[in-house]
């Protein structure tokens, strides 16, 4: 049974995202004093009394204007309301009732689908708040609650009334979620890919770059597995980004990478791998995330029987440092191979979380050293690998205990990593090799002995 949803509705710049942050107890929704910052509907978990629920933030509603993204924003707000158990209409207490507020209130009254609560935001003064809220009785939505999204004033009374209209809590055993971040440059088809997964217009899709401003989460279930798909803002070069909504959106995208189990790096098949794609791939590898490279818009490429092999060689040469990531050629527009992406996600997650016994690790090391011994310095010193063990997963990380890490150059370290790849796999996941010297090994043994005595 999914959590009940509470839709946050209102005109632009009344503080909807600020109130969402307050109700969810986080500072994630982008807040900026410009209309249209929130465009898609974004979900945040919230809790009050004994009820868990989701708060869905929506874009500012304007009914008499069809320019830019406004029709899409209205569509997203209507979709949010259609799946909600309750709605909160947010108005600006400092500005008072406007014609747009009256129009939205009338529209909400016509829906007859869910209970609607009126939150009069920006009532920072408790004394003045009641006077400010009283002006909004004329909207015909019942009692107006004077609240402050910034300071939290009055939100408790609003939530007390809200949760009484939500379905009662039930003991639910939730399956583990696999977090999948969808990242890439603007206009490579990230939102279209999300919509193809979900089967509805979950995110606004537009040929105008920068349509997605915030990171958007969506749950998809398949074969008793749950995937949290995170659509993110298109990431441009830093020098081209001004401080403002795009700046915040890109920061959210980087956070989405860090909290993901797997990252889908979406590349435009027409443009190929750009310098910005390479930088994004480098960031994914540095953060230790599993990755699947999704080459989108494959339907738009003129191809013959050799095209995919040529593309694969070109992409492999430009993403040579991420040769461990599997690649798939898709079309979000036609749905070509989109379902197969989750199969690769499952494989990447399994490898990212896999552990290998110490005995197997040392068998690989023994064979690798047998084929290619560590180099010897001019002074006659040669590197020695005593043993290795896996110390953690996500990503798989191995500690190699040696006589002196300085005796192992970069080429030999790459050789050992290549042997790990060939013998242990870990396809779809980065791996880490930690080279630890004899002194470090002795210190760790001493620490272990002290812990045993205690």
Automatic annotation (TrEMBL):
GO terms for biological process: ribosome biogenesis. GTP 2 binds at residues 184-191, 231-235, 296-299. InterPro entries: AAA+_ATPase, G_ENGA, GTP-bd, GTPase_Der, KH_dom-like, KH_dom-like_a/b, P-loop_NTPase, Small_GTP-bd. The keyword Repeat applies. GTP 1 binds at residues 10-17, 57-61, 121-124. It comes from the Bacteria. The keyword rRNA-binding does not apply. Keywords: GTP-binding, Nucleotide-binding, Repeat, Ribosome biogenesis. Associates with the 50S ribosomal subunit. GTPase that plays an essential role in the late steps of ribosome biogenesis. Belongs to the TRAFAC class TrmE-Era-EngA-EngB-Septin-like GTPase superfamily. EngA (Der) GTPase family. This is GTPase Der. It comes from Leptolyngbya iicbica LK. The gene is der.
